[in-house]
Amino acid sequence: MAKSNYITRSGWNTLDQELKFLWKDERPKVTQAVSDAAALGDRSENAEYIYGKRRLREIDRRVRFLTKRLEVLQIVDYHPKQEGKVFFGAWVALENEVGEEKQYRIVGCDEFDPAKNWISIDSPVARALIGKAIDDEIKVETPSGLVIFYINRIWYEK
To answer: Known HAMAP family for this protein (predicted)?
Structure first.
């Protein structure tokens, strides 16, 4: 499945800040360190030089990825018409059949974070939630079988 190109404004800002940091701060420092290490002579046994070159390749790879990704990402801002229904960027409180409640936020695939309970718009739970309202029932097929959730609350960060 192709990943969606949606992102929250804060998620886009985070990626943009990472790109600027890597390009304007980190890369020049590593480039200088590699240059200094190269000046010491034999590069084949020079750990600082070898590590620095490896780190430069990592930085360049990440910069290329972020540059391409930021070009195609579409920022989705909150709109008052979303109130009462689940759309991108929503926080949702779900209750399972046993009465346990969990809260999730629907975000882009570039910003999902299980530790924060942020789930990707491309996940089965998020796809089942889109367009639903409070008190709706959703069914999600999981590896352990069908799970039913009830939507208790929906809110957005404005």
So the answer is: GreA_GreB (MF_00105), GreB (MF_00930)
Sheet holding 137-142, edge to edge: 118-120, 101-107, 91-96, 145-155, 137-142
Residue 86, SS3 per DSSP: coil
List the domains of the chain with CATH numbers: 6-75 (1.10.287.180), 80-156 (3.10.50.30)
The region, left, alpha or beta by phi > 0 then psi within -120 to 50, assigned to residue 131 is left
User: What's the whole-model pTM score?
Assistant: 0.82
What sign has the CA pseudo-torsion 147, 114, 94, 89? negative
Residues 2-48: tens digit of each pLDDT: 578 999 999 999 999 999 999 999 999 999 999 998 888 777 788 88
Burial of 72 (0-12, 13-18, 19+ CB in 10 A): exposed
Residue 145: how many CB atoms within 10 A of its CB?
7
Residues whose CB is less than 8 angstroms from the CB of residue 85 and which lie 6 or more positions away in sequence, other chains included = 131, 132, 133, 154
